[in-house]
Amino acid sequence: YHMSTLQVNNLDSYTGTKIDVDSTADLNIESTTTSSSSTTGALRVAGGISTQNNLNVSGNAIVSGTLEASLDSSTLDGGTF
To answer: Where are the alpha helices (DSSP H) in the chain?
Structure first.
């Protein structure tokens, strides 16, 4: 069975441990709600976030915990550190 479109207002009755989106298509979240804290915004995740590729932020990145980075080279405000 192949479903091409799933439209829901709330997906709040799922009782499993995981929802997999197995697709070669993009997943777009069209809400434009701005984040002003770690508990607000269009996408909120209670656990950690993992990515296997680039992370691009076009607004501010605010870190309230520890930031660890392993850099080959980087540029900050036009200077290299």
So the answer is: none
